[in-house]
Design brief:
four-stranded mixed β-sheet, rod-shaped
């Protein structure tokens, strides 16, 4: 060896096993330990007698490790013991001339203790490492399954986001179309009103002209009327009656007859009935909660985790439902949004700004309907912390919803547990 053996060096050598990688097969890990046991360099300047003395201490330390249940360190030291006195020390230049009592003792321990215990330790280590390797493979497969599941969930979430975006785009296009249609109607109404105004202005001008042509004389009324009738039947232009006032001559009924239009009767309750019929579409610019879905879940005193998200998404697609938020309980606390709730709701509100979080507090007989403020969305969306942790209190991160309206609407509860 390059340096003399000491107890500390023996412990340091035994404490450096390269066997902790559970991804290795049991045989590879045992071979790694065996290599540590073979890592001995003989120093010719150290007498064989000192090596024999070190061997006695080495065997004693290996026994202590074995009694403590430290199989790895015991296996390494027994291997070093065997390597030193079977392979290395016999090649020492003074080995043949060395005759010390410890030599016979070491040879006896090699045969009766070191070799048998090394074989037993190897079997025990292989058994132990096999169990660890099996557990590692199970964890690896579990992690792989969870990764695949997570990727599938992300894919489903992306699909849900696209579906929501598509619905919002369709809604926006519908609102834009309705706006353009209303604008066209307004333009048509304005044009019709302008035409009517021009027509009324024209009639008033004709009435003034006729008035200026009428004579103020009131005699010969009967003859004038008779002459008017006779001349009209003869196809000539009838003279204007000097008795009838122009306002009466151009009454609304006569004006309609002049334009060739027949009267239209408008029922008084037509508009009322139409508005009742159109009420559903007129007030359609809102979301209505129709279903509450209770997914499979695992929960404790202060947490609740959703399981089998694929089933939840499948039910939503089956019923063509849009996620409008979530509802949960605070069994012992008041109704508010905890730090975990803030992170949970942030994902809902990112997908749909109208999303709500309903918190029920049965102990305090209280229920709150909340959403994140703009400051809350900015802070929570970039927060990387997990579990319960403090957040800014000023400005407020959440408020009671002002866009929620309570109505008597039929609700369907789907319990997937």
């Amino acid at each position: 060896m390059d340096q003399p053996f000491t107890m500390s060096s023996l412990k340091r050598l035994a404490a450096m096993p390269d066997h902790t990688d559970v991804s290795l097969s049991p045989e590879e890990r045992v071979r790694a330990l065996s290599k540590l046991g073979c890592n001995i360099t003989l120093n010719e300047d150290i007498t064989p007698r000192r090596y024999f003395r070190f061997g006695v201490e080495m065997e004693r330390m290996a026994s202590v490790y074995l009694e403590e249940g430290n199989l790895e360190n015991a296996f390494v030291l027994y291997n070093k013991f065997i390597t030193l006195f079977v392979e290395k020390l016999p090649g020492h230049r003074d080995y043949q001339q060395c005759a010390v009592p410890e030599k016979q003792d070491i040879m006896k321990k090699l045969k009766d203790i070191a070799f048998p215990r090394t074989d037993e330790l190897k079997k025990d280590l292989l058994k132990k490492y096999s169990a660890e390797y099996q557990e590692y493979m199970q964890d690896k497969n579990k992690c792989k399954t969870e990764l695949v599941k997570k990727l599938e969930q992300q894919s489903l979430i992306e699909a849900e986001k696209k579906r929501i975006a598509r619905i919002r785009q369709q809604q926006l296009e519908k609102e834009q179309f309705q706006f353009f249609e209303d604008q066209l109607k307004k333009q048509e109404l304005a044009r019709d009103q302008k035409i009517r105004d021009n027509s009324v202005s024209s009639e008033q001008t004709d009435g003034s002209t006729l008035s200026s042509c009428l004579s103020p004389h009131l005699n010969n009324t009967s003859s004038a009327a008779l002459t008017n009738k006779n001349e009209a039947s003869a196809g000539r232009s009838p003279p204007i009656s000097r008795v009838v006032k122009p306002e009466a001559t151009l009454s609304p009924a006569q004006s309609n007859l002049t334009e060739g239009l027949r009267s239209v009767v408008l029922p008084k309750d037509l508009c009322h009935k139409f508005l009742l019929l159109a009420e559903a579409n007129t007030t359609h610019n809102e979301f209505t909660i129709t279903h509450v879905i209770v997914p499979k879940q695992s929960a404790g005193p202060d947490y609740c985790d959703v399981e089998n998200v694929e089933e939840l998404f499948s039910v939503q697609d089956q019923h063509d439902l849009l996620t409008l938020g979530w509802i949960h309980t605070h069994p012992t606390q008041t109704a508010f949004l905890s730090s975990v709730d803030l992170h949970t709701h942030c994902s809902y509100q990112l997908m749909l700004p109208e999303a709500i979080a309903i918190v029920c507090s049965p102990k305090h007989n209280d229920t709150g309907v909340f959403r994140l403020t703009n400051a809350g969305m900015l802070e929570v969306s970039v927060c990387k912390k997990k579990g319960f942790h403090p957040h800014t209190k000023d400005p407020r991160l959440f408020n009671i919803c002002k866009h929620v309206i309570g109505k008597d609407v039929k609700i369907t509860v789907l319990d997937l547990r």
